Amino acid sequence: MTSSLLYGFKRIALGLALALGFCAQPLAKEQLNFVVIFTDDQGYGDMSCNGHPTIHTPHLDRMAHEGQKWTQFYSSAPVCTPSRAALMTGRLPVRSGMASSKRVVLFPDSAGGLPQSEITVAEVLKGVGYNTAMVGKWHMGHLPRHLPTTQGFDSYYGIPYSNDMDRDPSVKGNWVTIGKTSPWSIYKVPLLQNEKEIERPVNQNTITRRYTQQAVKFINENKEKPFFLYLAHSMPHIPLYASKKFEGKSLNGIYGDVIEEIDWSVGEVLNTLRKQKLDKKTIVLFTSDNGPWEVFKTHGGSAGLLRGAKGGTREGGMREPAIFWGPGNVKSGVVQELGSTLDVLPTFASLAGAKSPDDRAIDGYDLSDVLLNHGKSPRKGMFYFGGAQLSAVRSGNYKAQFREENGINPKPLAKPELYHLGEDPSEKYDLAAEHPEIVERLAKLGEELKATVKPVPDQLVPRIAD
Ligand code: MG
Question: How large a percentage of the chain has pLDDT more than 70?
Protein backbone atom coordinates (compact mmCIF):
# COMPACT_ATOMS: atom_id res chain seq x y z
CA MET A 1 0.00 0.00 0.00
CA THR A 2 1.46 3.33 -0.99
CA SER A 3 1.94 6.09 1.56
CA SER A 4 -0.56 8.33 -0.23
CA LEU A 5 -3.20 5.62 0.00
CA LEU A 6 -2.44 5.13 3.70
CA TYR A 7 -2.82 8.87 4.21
CA GLY A 8 -6.14 8.65 2.41
CA PHE A 9 -7.37 5.91 4.77
CA LYS A 10 -6.25 7.92 7.80
CA ARG A 11 -8.17 10.92 6.60
CA ILE A 12 -11.31 8.87 6.04
CA ALA A 13 -10.93 7.25 9.48
CA LEU A 14 -10.42 10.62 11.14
CA GLY A 15 -13.41 12.05 9.26
CA LEU A 16 -15.56 9.11 10.40
CA ALA A 17 -14.37 9.47 14.00
CA LEU A 18 -15.25 13.17 13.96
CA ALA A 19 -18.62 12.51 12.38
CA LEU A 20 -19.41 9.85 15.00
CA GLY A 21 -18.24 12.04 17.82
CA PHE A 22 -15.22 9.95 18.79
CA CYS A 23 -12.84 12.90 18.91
CA ALA A 24 -11.41 13.72 22.34
CA GLN A 25 -12.67 17.31 22.16
CA PRO A 26 -16.39 17.32 21.25
CA LEU A 27 -17.24 19.77 18.48
CA ALA A 28 -18.98 22.78 19.92
CA LYS A 29 -22.61 22.79 18.78
CA GLU A 30 -23.52 26.11 17.27
CA GLN A 31 -25.33 28.11 19.91
CA LEU A 32 -28.79 29.37 19.05
CA ASN A 33 -29.64 33.04 19.51
CA PHE A 34 -32.71 33.95 21.56
CA VAL A 35 -35.11 36.87 21.24
CA VAL A 36 -38.06 37.51 23.57
CA ILE A 37 -40.56 40.06 22.27
CA PHE A 38 -42.75 40.97 25.22
CA THR A 39 -45.80 43.25 24.96
CA ASP A 40 -47.54 45.01 27.83
CA ASP A 41 -51.22 44.31 28.57
CA GLN A 42 -51.93 42.73 25.18
CA GLY A 43 -54.91 40.39 25.47
CA TYR A 44 -55.10 36.76 24.38
CA GLY A 45 -57.45 37.76 21.56
CA ASP A 46 -55.46 40.69 20.21
CA MET A 47 -53.93 39.28 17.03
CA SER A 48 -55.69 38.19 13.88
CA CYS A 49 -54.31 34.64 14.17
CA ASN A 50 -56.14 34.40 17.51
CA GLY A 51 -59.38 35.49 15.88
CA HIS A 52 -59.45 39.26 16.29
CA PRO A 53 -61.80 40.59 13.59
CA THR A 54 -60.55 44.21 13.36
CA ILE A 55 -56.83 44.13 14.23
CA HIS A 56 -54.62 43.16 11.29
CA THR A 57 -51.37 41.40 12.31
CA PRO A 58 -49.83 39.89 9.14
CA HIS A 59 -46.33 39.54 10.63
CA LEU A 60 -47.53 37.77 13.76
CA ASP A 61 -49.79 35.59 11.61
CA ARG A 62 -46.83 34.60 9.42
CA MET A 63 -44.72 34.02 12.53
CA ALA A 64 -47.46 31.74 13.90
CA HIS A 65 -47.78 29.92 10.57
CA GLU A 66 -44.03 29.28 10.33
CA GLY A 67 -43.58 28.63 14.04
CA GLN A 68 -45.61 27.29 16.96
CA LYS A 69 -48.68 29.09 18.19
CA TRP A 70 -49.41 28.11 21.79
CA THR A 71 -53.03 28.29 22.94
CA GLN A 72 -52.43 27.60 26.65
CA PHE A 73 -49.40 29.69 27.53
CA TYR A 74 -49.37 31.66 30.81
CA SER A 75 -47.65 34.58 32.38
CA SER A 76 -47.10 33.99 36.05
CA ALA A 77 -48.95 37.06 37.34
CA PRO A 78 -51.77 39.29 36.10
CA VAL A 79 -49.74 42.55 36.43
CA CYS A 80 -46.41 43.91 35.18
CA THR A 81 -43.74 43.73 37.89
CA PRO A 82 -44.27 40.17 39.17
CA SER A 83 -44.90 38.86 35.66
CA ARG A 84 -41.54 40.23 34.46
CA ALA A 85 -39.69 38.90 37.50
CA ALA A 86 -40.98 35.41 36.69
CA LEU A 87 -39.93 35.69 33.04
CA MET A 88 -36.42 36.70 34.08
CA THR A 89 -35.89 34.14 36.84
CA GLY A 90 -38.07 31.09 36.07
CA ARG A 91 -39.37 31.46 39.63
CA LEU A 92 -42.79 32.35 41.00
CA PRO A 93 -42.55 36.03 41.91
CA VAL A 94 -43.42 35.33 45.57
CA ARG A 95 -40.04 33.62 45.85
CA SER A 96 -38.12 36.79 44.94
CA GLY A 97 -40.32 39.25 46.87
CA MET A 98 -41.59 40.73 43.59
CA ALA A 99 -45.25 39.89 44.34
CA SER A 100 -46.89 41.77 47.17
CA SER A 101 -50.16 41.88 49.07
CA LYS A 102 -49.59 45.57 49.85
CA ARG A 103 -48.64 47.26 46.59
CA VAL A 104 -49.56 46.11 43.11
CA VAL A 105 -46.32 46.91 41.20
CA LEU A 106 -43.19 49.07 41.52
CA PHE A 107 -43.72 52.85 41.21
CA PRO A 108 -41.35 55.81 40.69
CA ASP A 109 -41.15 56.20 44.50
CA SER A 110 -40.19 52.54 45.00
CA ALA A 111 -36.79 51.68 46.43
CA GLY A 112 -37.00 47.94 45.75
CA GLY A 113 -36.40 45.78 42.73
CA LEU A 114 -35.35 42.33 41.61
CA PRO A 115 -32.76 41.28 44.22
CA GLN A 116 -29.19 40.75 43.07
CA SER A 117 -29.34 37.27 44.58
CA GLU A 118 -31.77 36.27 41.80
CA ILE A 119 -30.26 34.69 38.68
CA THR A 120 -31.76 35.96 35.43
CA VAL A 121 -31.98 34.23 32.06
CA ALA A 122 -29.58 36.91 30.78
CA GLU A 123 -27.03 35.93 33.45
CA VAL A 124 -27.44 32.23 32.65
CA LEU A 125 -26.82 32.88 28.94
CA LYS A 126 -23.95 35.29 29.61
CA GLY A 127 -22.32 32.47 31.53
CA VAL A 128 -22.01 30.47 28.28
CA GLY A 129 -20.73 33.36 26.18
CA TYR A 130 -23.83 35.22 25.00
CA ASN A 131 -24.01 38.94 24.28
CA THR A 132 -27.15 40.34 25.87
CA ALA A 133 -29.31 43.43 25.42
CA MET A 134 -32.51 44.74 26.88
CA VAL A 135 -34.66 47.18 24.94
CA GLY A 136 -37.92 48.57 26.32
CA LYS A 137 -39.84 48.59 29.58
CA TRP A 138 -37.99 47.04 32.51
CA HIS A 139 -40.20 47.53 35.61
CA MET A 140 -38.06 45.50 37.99
CA GLY A 141 -36.55 48.46 39.86
CA HIS A 142 -35.51 51.85 38.45
CA LEU A 143 -32.71 52.79 40.87
CA PRO A 144 -29.22 52.21 39.41
CA ARG A 145 -28.71 49.13 41.63
CA HIS A 146 -31.71 47.43 40.00
CA LEU A 147 -31.38 48.34 36.30
CA PRO A 148 -30.93 45.69 33.56
CA THR A 149 -27.17 46.32 33.40
CA THR A 150 -26.93 44.90 36.94
CA GLN A 151 -28.93 41.80 35.97
CA GLY A 152 -26.94 40.27 33.13
CA PHE A 153 -27.65 42.68 30.26
CA ASP A 154 -24.65 44.25 28.50
CA SER A 155 -26.77 47.20 27.42
CA TYR A 156 -30.13 48.82 28.07
CA TYR A 157 -32.30 51.27 26.16
CA GLY A 158 -35.80 51.92 27.46
CA ILE A 159 -38.14 53.16 30.15
CA PRO A 160 -37.64 51.86 33.69
CA TYR A 161 -41.35 51.58 34.66
CA SER A 162 -44.82 51.97 33.14
CA ASN A 163 -45.61 54.64 30.57
CA ASP A 164 -48.52 56.03 32.67
CA MET A 165 -46.33 56.81 35.69
CA ASP A 166 -44.71 60.11 36.73
CA ARG A 167 -47.89 61.95 35.77
CA ASP A 168 -47.78 65.75 36.09
CA PRO A 169 -49.47 66.27 39.51
CA SER A 170 -51.24 69.41 38.28
CA VAL A 171 -53.35 67.27 35.91
CA LYS A 172 -56.36 66.35 38.06
CA GLY A 173 -59.44 64.31 37.31
CA ASN A 174 -60.60 60.80 36.51
CA TRP A 175 -57.56 58.62 35.81
CA VAL A 176 -59.34 56.55 33.15
CA THR A 177 -60.35 59.67 31.21
CA ILE A 178 -56.90 61.19 31.62
CA GLY A 179 -55.30 57.95 30.46
CA LYS A 180 -57.42 57.93 27.33
CA THR A 181 -57.26 61.56 26.32
CA SER A 182 -54.02 63.23 27.45
CA PRO A 183 -50.83 63.99 25.49
CA TRP A 184 -47.73 61.98 26.44
CA SER A 185 -46.05 65.13 27.72
CA ILE A 186 -48.00 64.88 31.02
CA TYR A 187 -46.15 61.63 31.84
CA LYS A 188 -42.62 62.57 32.89
CA VAL A 189 -41.30 59.09 32.18
CA PRO A 190 -37.54 58.97 31.47
CA LEU A 191 -35.83 57.17 28.59
CA LEU A 192 -32.57 55.56 29.73
CA GLN A 193 -29.50 54.44 27.83
CA ASN A 194 -27.78 52.01 30.19
CA GLU A 195 -27.99 53.99 33.47
CA LYS A 196 -28.15 57.45 31.89
CA GLU A 197 -31.32 59.47 31.33
CA ILE A 198 -31.35 60.66 27.70
CA GLU A 199 -34.89 62.04 27.35
CA ARG A 200 -37.68 63.11 29.73
CA PRO A 201 -40.57 62.93 29.15
CA VAL A 202 -40.08 60.23 26.59
CA ASN A 203 -41.83 60.85 23.28
CA GLN A 204 -44.32 57.99 23.27
CA ASN A 205 -45.46 58.48 19.68
CA THR A 206 -42.08 57.27 18.43
CA ILE A 207 -41.20 54.82 21.21
CA THR A 208 -42.21 51.59 19.43
CA ARG A 209 -40.29 52.64 16.31
CA ARG A 210 -37.20 53.59 18.32
CA TYR A 211 -37.20 50.33 20.31
CA THR A 212 -37.38 48.52 16.99
CA GLN A 213 -34.39 50.43 15.58
CA GLN A 214 -32.36 49.56 18.67
CA ALA A 215 -33.32 45.89 18.42
CA VAL A 216 -32.41 45.73 14.72
CA LYS A 217 -29.08 47.48 15.39
CA PHE A 218 -28.21 44.99 18.15
CA ILE A 219 -28.95 42.02 15.86
CA ASN A 220 -26.88 43.51 13.02
CA GLU A 221 -23.96 44.11 15.36
CA ASN A 222 -24.07 40.63 16.86
CA LYS A 223 -24.44 38.39 13.83
CA GLU A 224 -21.13 36.64 14.55
CA LYS A 225 -21.76 35.86 18.23
CA PRO A 226 -24.58 34.13 20.09
CA PHE A 227 -26.96 36.69 21.55
CA PHE A 228 -30.00 37.15 23.75
CA LEU A 229 -32.26 40.11 23.06
CA TYR A 230 -35.12 41.02 25.38
CA LEU A 231 -37.39 43.48 23.56
CA ALA A 232 -40.17 44.57 25.92
CA HIS A 233 -42.56 47.01 24.29
CA SER A 234 -44.12 49.68 26.53
CA MET A 235 -47.34 49.39 24.51
CA PRO A 236 -50.25 48.57 24.47
CA HIS A 237 -50.26 49.64 28.14
CA ILE A 238 -52.28 52.87 28.37
CA PRO A 239 -51.79 55.72 27.50
CA LEU A 240 -51.73 54.61 23.88
CA TYR A 241 -49.71 56.33 21.18
CA ALA A 242 -48.60 55.25 17.72
CA SER A 243 -46.31 56.86 15.16
CA LYS A 244 -47.77 58.86 12.24
CA LYS A 245 -47.55 55.88 9.91
CA PHE A 246 -49.94 53.85 12.09
CA GLU A 247 -52.11 56.45 13.83
CA GLY A 248 -55.72 56.29 12.64
CA LYS A 249 -55.04 53.37 10.29
CA SER A 250 -56.59 50.31 11.95
CA LEU A 251 -60.28 49.42 12.12
CA ASN A 252 -59.88 49.04 15.89
CA GLY A 253 -59.06 52.63 16.87
CA ILE A 254 -55.87 53.62 18.70
CA TYR A 255 -55.59 50.22 20.41
CA GLY A 256 -55.52 48.51 17.01
CA ASP A 257 -53.08 51.13 15.66
CA VAL A 258 -50.69 50.35 18.51
CA ILE A 259 -50.90 46.57 18.00
CA GLU A 260 -50.42 46.98 14.26
CA GLU A 261 -47.27 49.03 14.89
CA ILE A 262 -46.00 46.29 17.22
CA ASP A 263 -46.83 43.79 14.47
CA TRP A 264 -44.73 45.87 12.05
CA SER A 265 -41.94 45.81 14.64
CA VAL A 266 -42.10 42.00 14.83
CA GLY A 267 -41.77 41.94 11.03
CA GLU A 268 -38.67 44.17 11.20
CA VAL A 269 -37.01 41.89 13.76
CA LEU A 270 -37.78 38.68 11.86
CA ASN A 271 -36.78 40.22 8.52
CA THR A 272 -33.46 41.36 10.01
CA LEU A 273 -32.82 37.80 11.19
CA ARG A 274 -33.67 36.49 7.71
CA LYS A 275 -31.49 39.09 6.00
CA GLN A 276 -28.51 38.28 8.24
CA LYS A 277 -29.12 34.55 7.68
CA LEU A 278 -29.69 34.15 11.40
CA ASP A 279 -33.26 32.87 11.09
CA LYS A 280 -32.14 29.22 11.27
CA LYS A 281 -29.90 30.01 14.24
CA THR A 282 -32.42 31.94 16.33
CA ILE A 283 -35.49 31.19 18.41
CA VAL A 284 -37.93 34.05 18.92
CA LEU A 285 -40.74 34.07 21.48
CA PHE A 286 -43.56 36.59 21.20
CA THR A 287 -45.86 36.94 24.23
CA SER A 288 -47.39 39.42 26.69
CA ASP A 289 -46.97 40.16 30.41
CA ASN A 290 -50.64 39.99 31.45
CA GLY A 291 -54.18 40.30 30.15
CA PRO A 292 -55.97 43.36 28.73
CA TRP A 293 -56.79 46.38 30.91
CA GLU A 294 -60.56 46.12 30.85
CA VAL A 295 -61.33 49.33 32.77
CA PHE A 296 -60.02 51.35 29.80
CA LYS A 297 -62.69 49.81 27.56
CA THR A 298 -61.71 50.37 23.89
CA HIS A 299 -58.20 51.42 25.01
CA GLY A 300 -57.80 48.04 26.69
CA GLY A 301 -57.58 44.93 24.51
CA SER A 302 -59.52 41.70 24.46
CA ALA A 303 -58.97 38.32 26.06
CA GLY A 304 -61.11 36.74 23.30
CA LEU A 305 -63.28 33.93 24.68
CA LEU A 306 -61.41 33.90 27.98
CA ARG A 307 -63.00 35.24 31.15
CA GLY A 308 -61.42 38.10 33.09
CA ALA A 309 -58.66 40.58 32.39
CA LYS A 310 -55.52 42.26 33.74
CA GLY A 311 -55.23 42.20 37.52
CA GLY A 312 -57.28 39.01 37.84
CA THR A 313 -56.61 35.29 38.07
CA ARG A 314 -59.31 34.12 35.68
CA GLU A 315 -57.80 32.88 32.42
CA GLY A 316 -58.00 36.27 30.65
CA GLY A 317 -55.70 37.82 33.25
CA MET A 318 -52.83 35.39 32.73
CA ARG A 319 -53.25 33.36 29.55
CA GLU A 320 -51.34 35.14 26.80
CA PRO A 321 -50.92 35.26 23.05
CA ALA A 322 -47.76 33.20 22.47
CA ILE A 323 -45.71 32.23 19.41
CA PHE A 324 -42.33 30.48 19.25
CA TRP A 325 -40.52 30.88 15.91
CA GLY A 326 -37.30 29.36 14.64
CA PRO A 327 -37.34 27.93 11.09
CA GLY A 328 -35.50 24.61 10.97
CA ASN A 329 -35.54 24.29 14.75
CA VAL A 330 -39.04 25.02 16.05
CA LYS A 331 -41.48 22.53 14.52
CA SER A 332 -44.41 24.48 13.15
CA GLY A 333 -47.99 23.95 14.22
CA VAL A 334 -50.49 24.78 16.93
CA VAL A 335 -49.56 23.62 20.43
CA GLN A 336 -52.30 22.98 22.97
CA GLU A 337 -49.86 21.83 25.66
CA LEU A 338 -49.29 24.00 28.74
CA GLY A 339 -46.44 26.50 28.89
CA SER A 340 -45.50 29.61 30.82
CA THR A 341 -43.05 32.48 30.81
CA LEU A 342 -41.65 30.65 33.87
CA ASP A 343 -40.36 28.05 31.39
CA VAL A 344 -38.26 30.48 29.34
CA LEU A 345 -35.14 30.28 31.53
CA PRO A 346 -34.99 26.46 31.76
CA THR A 347 -35.82 26.09 28.05
CA PHE A 348 -33.24 28.59 26.78
CA ALA A 349 -30.64 27.26 29.23
CA SER A 350 -31.19 23.74 27.93
CA LEU A 351 -31.01 24.80 24.26
CA ALA A 352 -27.86 26.87 24.90
CA GLY A 353 -26.08 24.10 26.78
CA ALA A 354 -26.17 26.15 29.99
CA LYS A 355 -27.23 25.03 33.45
CA SER A 356 -30.38 26.26 35.17
CA PRO A 357 -29.63 27.33 38.75
CA ASP A 358 -29.78 24.25 41.01
CA ASP A 359 -29.37 25.95 44.38
CA ARG A 360 -32.97 27.26 44.57
CA ALA A 361 -36.54 26.42 43.66
CA ILE A 362 -37.18 26.84 39.93
CA ASP A 363 -40.83 26.80 38.88
CA GLY A 364 -40.20 26.53 35.14
CA TYR A 365 -39.85 23.49 32.89
CA ASP A 366 -37.70 22.76 29.85
CA LEU A 367 -40.05 23.02 26.85
CA SER A 368 -37.38 22.22 24.26
CA ASP A 369 -38.87 18.84 23.32
CA VAL A 370 -42.17 20.55 22.49
CA LEU A 371 -40.38 23.21 20.45
CA LEU A 372 -38.09 20.87 18.55
CA ASN A 373 -40.20 17.71 18.26
CA HIS A 374 -43.80 18.56 19.13
CA GLY A 375 -43.30 16.43 22.26
CA LYS A 376 -45.46 16.54 25.36
CA SER A 377 -44.98 19.48 27.67
CA PRO A 378 -43.52 18.67 31.08
CA ARG A 379 -45.79 21.44 32.47
CA LYS A 380 -49.00 19.89 33.74
CA GLY A 381 -50.47 22.74 35.75
CA MET A 382 -50.32 26.36 36.81
CA PHE A 383 -50.48 28.35 40.04
CA TYR A 384 -52.30 31.70 39.86
CA PHE A 385 -51.34 34.40 42.35
CA GLY A 386 -53.30 37.58 43.10
CA GLY A 387 -50.54 39.70 44.68
CA ALA A 388 -48.78 37.29 47.03
CA GLN A 389 -51.93 35.16 47.60
CA LEU A 390 -52.44 31.88 45.82
CA SER A 391 -55.89 32.33 44.23
CA ALA A 392 -56.30 29.42 41.83
CA VAL A 393 -54.65 26.14 40.86
CA ARG A 394 -54.74 24.34 37.52
CA SER A 395 -53.87 20.66 37.18
CA GLY A 396 -54.45 19.03 33.81
CA ASN A 397 -57.72 20.40 32.48
CA TYR A 398 -59.16 21.33 35.87
CA LYS A 399 -58.82 24.71 37.51
CA ALA A 400 -60.00 25.42 41.04
CA GLN A 401 -60.56 29.03 42.06
CA PHE A 402 -60.15 29.57 45.80
CA ARG A 403 -60.00 33.35 46.08
CA GLU A 404 -61.62 36.31 44.36
CA GLU A 405 -60.34 36.82 40.87
CA ASN A 406 -59.11 40.38 41.37
CA GLY A 407 -56.82 42.49 43.47
CA ILE A 408 -53.55 42.17 45.33
CA ASN A 409 -55.14 40.76 48.47
CA PRO A 410 -57.99 38.61 47.16
CA LYS A 411 -60.34 37.26 49.83
CA PRO A 412 -61.34 33.58 49.92
CA LEU A 413 -64.48 32.78 47.92
CA ALA A 414 -67.50 31.61 49.98
CA LYS A 415 -67.13 28.30 48.13
CA PRO A 416 -64.29 27.23 45.81
CA GLU A 417 -65.20 26.96 42.13
CA LEU A 418 -64.06 24.33 39.66
CA TYR A 419 -63.83 24.57 35.87
CA HIS A 420 -62.84 22.17 33.11
CA LEU A 421 -60.70 24.38 30.88
CA GLY A 422 -60.80 21.93 27.99
CA GLU A 423 -64.59 21.76 27.70
CA ASP A 424 -65.16 25.20 29.18
CA PRO A 425 -62.28 27.57 28.34
CA SER A 426 -64.46 30.57 29.28
CA GLU A 427 -64.89 29.35 32.91
CA LYS A 428 -68.69 29.52 32.75
CA TYR A 429 -69.84 26.27 34.33
CA ASP A 430 -68.82 25.61 37.94
CA LEU A 431 -68.31 21.88 38.59
CA ALA A 432 -67.26 22.14 42.25
CA ALA A 433 -70.46 20.55 43.62
CA GLU A 434 -70.10 17.59 41.22
CA HIS A 435 -66.41 16.98 41.88
CA PRO A 436 -65.48 17.89 45.45
CA GLU A 437 -62.65 15.33 45.32
CA ILE A 438 -60.99 17.26 42.48
CA VAL A 439 -61.32 20.54 44.36
CA GLU A 440 -59.70 18.84 47.35
CA ARG A 441 -56.84 17.48 45.23
CA LEU A 442 -56.13 20.90 43.73
CA ALA A 443 -56.33 22.57 47.15
CA LYS A 444 -53.71 20.09 48.37
CA LEU A 445 -51.43 20.91 45.43
CA GLY A 446 -51.75 24.59 46.38
CA GLU A 447 -50.89 23.90 50.03
CA GLU A 448 -47.88 21.82 48.99
CA LEU A 449 -46.65 24.63 46.76
CA LYS A 450 -47.13 27.25 49.48
CA ALA A 451 -45.06 25.15 51.87
CA THR A 452 -42.07 25.50 49.51
CA VAL A 453 -42.16 29.33 49.46
CA LYS A 454 -39.66 30.78 51.92
CA PRO A 455 -40.50 34.22 53.33
CA VAL A 456 -38.41 37.00 51.71
CA PRO A 457 -38.52 40.82 51.95
CA ASP A 458 -41.40 42.37 49.99
CA GLN A 459 -39.64 44.40 47.26
CA LEU A 460 -42.73 46.41 46.35
CA VAL A 461 -43.22 48.07 49.74
CA PRO A 462 -40.05 50.11 50.49
CA ARG A 463 -40.12 53.70 49.23
CA ILE A 464 -37.22 55.99 48.42
CA ALA A 465 -38.38 58.49 51.05
CA ASP A 466 -38.46 55.84 53.84
MG1 MG B 1 -48.66 44.84 32.02
Answer: 94
